[in-house]
Structures are given as structure tokens and as C-alpha cells.
Design brief:
mainly beta; nine-stranded mixed beta sheet; eight-stranded mixed beta sheet; 53 strands
């Protein structure tokens, strides 16, 4: 028996075929012997069921006469993927019936492989366009890749739709029906282009998907992709999702704690307390950001405030920012005049879930209240609550000012603040000084700086002279003016207080003092601004004597006689000496003693002293006799032994003390 294999192969090669595709191969045997033969195909018992499912041999048995040829037809068709190579599980057994000669079995080597369509989707499970600004569209692609060895057909339709004719089980490239490749499918906002076609082996097909966001909402559509000759056990349905979201660009327009995170947010302003710091008020009907008063045309840097513009949405937004000045006081009516409010930048691009800052600078050009409207508008915004942020701006341009709290007296002639010092004698000691205070206060809401210009003088000293005095809002300062005359006469000095950055305010002070020159002065007494010279004993124990001393000095070139009036001296006091002479340029110590036998209280007891210029009649007259007579009564007789004459008709300039 001689086998004849097709195409010179040593067996039957079905090659690679598609699942469910039928492939037929033929071979034959020739009986070259003298006797007829019979044949029969034997299949391995363990694989008999397997081969019976995919292989059909005709005829399976029969008789071949001598010299004749027998044709065999093998038909293979698999319902799943099968692969066997050089398999010898099927054998042809040949027998000579007459001689009962059994020839060796002829193994039938077969090569067979059946495959499904192999495909891949990119993206794997769906296309997500993500958030998209309403009114705009976007396009993406779906790639169907053919990883198999055969071309396959595909078609795309909406999942769950009725009336869709499925593709044929086995796609025959040569005898395939003409299909209209391409086509479009519109599913709501999605437009799919290329819903039918053939994907060549090891090739790919591009399907375009366009999404147009119409409304503010989420969109979701399901597609089903029918792939011809796929493994329906593994892929019973090929579902594919299309997703997208329509979003309107917007900004935070009502969360004032976020917008004004760097400022104070108040319900309303307190009318009893002036505004000292920038703040935003949220009470209806107007929402206003208040700048604290600022020095108009000041040299200091203008205040700036940053407002947070936030994008809480999934799409970026472009924001136009403007400040519209209200009225002419903000510089609107004068092109040369700078506006009171300036915003930077005028446009912002804010990515999703991020924020940027807009800065407003307040620079008032005059003494007025400036108002404006801040507006941040979202380009192409369609959502009313988030497409625009609007609030008012207000600020006041003022000038610094300082008020004088003390003294309150004003000069009737010039209306200047008057510091009138009491008339005082010319003394040659450190106590020849009187002091008054000036109290200044800043009642404004901005820093004020005072500068003082004072007449050139040696009679007055001023603690603010040559200084710049800074006063914060609500702050006070106390300055001192000392009157220390070094010569007799009326002293009149001017002080001018000017406020920096306020050319319209100047406060004048008038310092008025008078100093007179005395022939006889008292030294060592307690000085009182209201009561003049005093001698204070304080609290004294009953029956105890306390002594205080002071000096009487004669600063003239003539002798003087003094006498403390006895009628003015209370009984508890004693002056020693009470009467005496003062030689030119001489000083005498006066001892005043106080002793009381009972409880008593003495206040403001005034004692007068008479001063007279005298001229001695005798040239060798010496002072001291009269005062010695008054030191003690026991020495009166001794003092009377010598008599001294003098002339007391001369008048003193200021003869009396009190």
C-alpha cells in the first residue's frame, strides 16, 4: 500500500483556521499488491471523543482491489481553540483478507490549529473625557487592535438597543458581504465616528469620539462592540463606557471668610468707634470693604489689601477684574488725577481647585470719601451664583491732626494757646524756675507727627524743641515748658506746632512771663505755683518746738530795714530776728520756731514784712543794734547804751513781703 499525501507533505496539514471554520483535506492510498486489501481507521481510545468532535473521515473503512486507488476526505471544524501538531493518534490499518497478512499500521500525522479573533481595546474599558466647560467640545480616540492572524469585522452600537443584526459567526475575507465601513452613532452629547469596519490582522482601527458639554451635569453612555469570531465564553459582551461632565467655570462668590482670609469680617461697623483697621462688612443691602482712613497724598506707602479669588470647580477659569470708581472724588473725572483705587492684576487664570490673589491699593488724592465697586467676572461663566464676585470699596482721605488738651486758656489777641506764668522775682538760685505742661492728643485714626518751631530765647526751655513728636491714634504726650528768667522784664515767646503732611494745620503757643528785680529777696522757702512762698512745718508733736530757717538777702547797694509785723504772727510762731538791717549784698538767716501747747491747725497764715531803704546819719554807724534788741528782752538795756540814727524816708521799689 502506497499513501499519497497532498502537496508532498508527510501527513495532513490543516494549518491555522478560525474556530467554527471548516477545512477539508484529501489523501489517497494505492493498492500495488496482487491481492485486494481492506482498510480501517483506528483512533486512540483516550482521544476518540476529542477527534470525533472536530474531525470527520470518509470513508472510515472499505476494500481496495489490486491496482486501484482509494480517496479519503478529512473535514476538520472546531468549536473552540484547538492545537495539535504531528499527532499520530489516528492510524490506518490495512489487511489482506485472502492471506490474512496484516501490514503495519500507517500513522496519519496531522497538523491542526483553530483560533478565535484576538483583539485589544485602548483605552481598555472606556473613554472618560472628565470635566469639560459647557459650550465646548473635546475629541478622543478608541483603538481596536487585531492581535490575531485573521482579519475580523466589528460594529458598535448602544448597549441594550434592539434590532441590531449580529455579525456572522465566521468572517470570510474573500467572500465577506459588502459592509458600509465608517458610519456615525450619536448618543446624547457623544458622537462616535467609524462604528463599522474590518480590522486587518496585526493592524488597528481608529474610532473617533467627540463629546460636547451642553449642561452642567454628568454624562454616561454605554456602548457594545461586536467583534466577529471572538471567544464568547470569555467575552460574551464587549461593553464600553463613555463618560464626561459638563461644568461651568466659576469662583467662590459668597464665602467671605475665604475671600477675606487676611482681613476682618464684621457684620456691621460700630458707629461709636472709628475704623482703625481695614475690614469687610457683610450686612445687607451692601457688602463693602472698608479701608481705614489714609493720609491724602501722603508720602508713606499706600495701603494694599489682597483678596483671595478661588476656583472650587473641576475646570480652569479666566477671571477679569475691575474697579469702577464712583463719583469724581476717586479721580474718575480727571484724567490727570490718579484713581483712588487701583487693582492688580486685571486678569487671572486659575486652574481647578486653586486660588489666586487680586490686590487693591488705596491712594486717596484729596480730603474726601472715595467709593468704588470691585468686580471679578468669570469668562463664559453660566452658573449665576459663581460667575461674578461683586462688593463695594470705600475709604476716606484725611489729614493728620493733633489737638491740645492742656492748657485750655487762649490768648484774647491772637487766639494762641496761652501759657501765662505768674509774676516772679529775679533770683540767683536753682529755684528760680516755674514749669507748665502742654498735653497733646491724636484723636485721628492715622499717625500724626508734630514739629515745633520756637523763638530764640534763654528765658524759656521747652522739652519738645528740636524734636519730632510721633503720636499714634488715641495716644497722648505731655511736654513741659520751664520759665527760668535770667533778667527782669516781660518775656513773650512764640511756639508754632506744625503737623507733617498737613499744610493746613498750625497751632500757635504764647509763653508769657514777667520777672521783676527786688532789692531784698527771700531764699530757702518752699515754692508753690498757686500760693507763692511758703514755710511748711507739717505735723508737730504738742509741746515740741520745731525750727525752720530761711534767708533774707539784700542784692542792692543800699542798706535796708526789715520788720516782720508782730500783729500778723500767730502766738505759736516766733521770728528771730523779727526786725533788723540788711547791709548791701548781705544776707541774714531768719529762724522761725513753732510750738503749741494744745491741738491746733494752722493753714495759709500770712505774715507781712515791711522793707525800707535806710541811710545812716553817722558814718560809723553799724548795723545790728536794733536787731539785737529784739533777740531777747534781757539785752535791751545793753543795746540802749549806744544810739544809732538813720533816715528811713527813702522809698523802696518793692518794700513789702507777705
Amino acid at each position: 500500500v502506497k499513501p499519497e499525501w497532498p502537496e508532498g507533505n508527510d501527513g495532513i496539514d490543516f494549518g491555522t483556521i478560525k474556530v467554527n471554520q471548516q477545512m477539508v483535506r484529501n489523501f489517497s492510498i494505492s493498492n500495488e499488491g496482487k491481492y485486494p486489501i481492506t482498510f480501517d481507521f483506528l483512533i486512540n481510545n483516550r482521544k476518540k471523543r476529542f477527534y470525533n468532535e472536530i474531525l470527520k473521515i470518509e470513508p472510515m473503512s472499505g476494500r481496495v482491489e489490486s491496482g486501484e486507488k482509494q480517496e479519503f476526505t478529512l473535514s476538520a471544524q472546531a468549536k473552540r481553540e484547538v492545537h495539535f501538531n504531528n499527532s499520530s493518534d489516528i492510524k490506518l490499518v490495512v489487511l489482506e483478507p485472502e492471506t490474512q497478512d496484516k501490514q503495519p499500521a500507517l500513522p496519519i500525522k496531522m497538523h491542526f490549529r483553530s483560533v478565535f479573533s484576538k483583539f485589544a481595546m485602548l483605552p481598555n474599558h472606556g473613554v472618560d473625557f472628565g470635566p469639560l466647560e459647557t459650550g465646548t467640545d473635546s475629541e478622543k480616540q478608541i483603538e481596536i487592535e487585531n492581535d490575531g492572524v485573521f482579519d475580523f469585522q466589528y460594529q458598535i452600537f448602544e448597549a441594550g438597543s434592539d434590532g441590531v443584526e449580529p455579525l456572522q459567526e465566521v468572517f470570510d475575507e474573500k467572500n465577506a458581504p459588502n459592509i458600509e465601513e465608517g458610519g456615525e452613532l450619536e448618543l446624547g452629547p457623544f458622537l462616535i465616528t467609524g462604528i463599522r469596519g474590518v480590522v486587518p490582522a496585526k493592524g488597528k482601527k481608529i474610532i473617533k469620539v467627540r463629546f460636547k458639554a451642553g449642561e452642567i451635569r454628568e454624562y454616561n453612555r454605554s456602548l457594545e462592540i461586536d467583534i466577529c469570531q471572538r471567544d464568547k465564553l470569555q467575552f460574551p459582551r464587549v461593553l464600553y463606557e463613555l463618560m464626561g461632565e459638563g461644568c461651568s467655570p466659576g469662583i467662590v462668590a459668597s464665602n467671605y471668610a475665604s475671600i477675606f482670609e487676611e482681613q476682618s469680617v464684621l457684620r456691621r461697623l460700630d458707629p461709636l468707634h472709628p475704623l482703625t483697621s481695614n475690614a469687610f462688612t457683610i450686612e445687607e443691602p451692601e457688602r463693602v470693604f472698608h479701608f481705614a482712613p489714609v493720609v491724602a497724598n501722603g508720602k508713606n506707602p499706600s495701603p494694599k489689601e489682597r483678596f483671595r479669588i478661588s476656583n472650587p470647580y473641576k475646570v480652569p477659569c479666566n477671571v477679569s477684574i475691575s474697579v469702577e470708581i464712583k463719583g469724581d472724588e476717586g479721580g474718575k473725572g480727571d484724567e490727570k488725577k490718579e484713581p483712588a483705587f487701583v487693582v492688580t492684576p486685571e486678569a487671572l487664570h486659575i486652574p481647578p481647585h486653586e486660588h489666586r490673589f487680586a490686590t487693591v491699593q488705596f491712594n486717596p488724592q484729596g480730603l474726601s470719601t472715595c467709593t468704588a465697586v470691585f468686580t471679578a467676572t468669570v469668562e463664559r461663566g453660566t452658573h449665576e451664583p459663581s460667575k461674578c464676585l461683586t462688593f463695594g470699596l470705600t475709604g476716606e482721605g484725611i489729614l493728620p491732626s493733633i489737638s491740645v488738651e492742656e492748657p485750655t486758656e487762649r490768648d484774647s489777641e491772637t487766639s494762641a494757646v496761652l501759657l501765662n506764668f505768674a509774676r516772679m522775682p529775679l533770683l540767683k538760685n536753682d529755684k528760680n524756675t516755674k514749669t507748665k505742661t502742654i498735653v497733646l492728643r491724636n484723636d485721628m485714626t492715622v499717625l500724626a507727627t508734630a514739629r515745633f518751631d520756637m523763638d530764640d530765647t534763654t528765658q524759656f526751655s521747652f522739652s519738645g524743641r528740636g524734636k519730632l513728636i510721633d503720636l499714634n491714634p488715641g495716644e497722648s504726650v505731655k511736654l513741659t515748658v520751664d520759665y527760668h528768667p535770667s533778667e527782669a522784664g516781660v518775656h513773650d515767646v512764640k511756639i508754632a506746632m506744625k503737623i507733617l503732611q498737613n499744610p493746613f494745620e498750625m497751632t500757635a503757643f504764647r509763653l508769657l512771663g514777667e520777672c521783676f528785680e527786688q532789692d531784698v529777696t527771700l531764699e530757702g522757702l518752699d515754692m508753690s505755683e498757686s500760693k507763692g512762698d511758703e514755710l511748711q512745718f507739717g505735723d508737730v508733736v504738742i509741746g515740741k518746738t520745731v525750727v525752720k530757717t530761711f534767708k533774707m538777702a539784700n542784692t542792692s547797694s543800699l542798706a535796708h530795714r526789715f520788720e516782720w509785723k508782730e500783729d500778723d504772727i500767730p502766738g505759736q510762731f516766733k521770728f528771730i530776728p523779727r526786725i533788723g538791717h540788711l547791709q548791701p549784698q548781705e544776707s541774714k538767716e531768719i529762724r522761725v520756731s513753732f510750738m503749741s501747747e494744745e491741738t491746733s491747725k494752722l493753714e495759709d497764715q500770712k505774715v507781712s514784712c515791711t522793707i525800707k531803704k535806710i541811710k545812716y546819719v553817722e558814718e560809723d554807724a553799724k548795723d545790728g543794734e536794733e536787731e539785737k534788741q529784739n533777740e531777747n528782752k534781757e539785752g535791751a538795756a545793753e543795746s540802749a547804751k549806744k544810739t544809732v540814727n538813720w533816715d528811713d524816708t527813702m522809698e523802696a521799689d518793692d518794700p513789702n513781703f507777705e
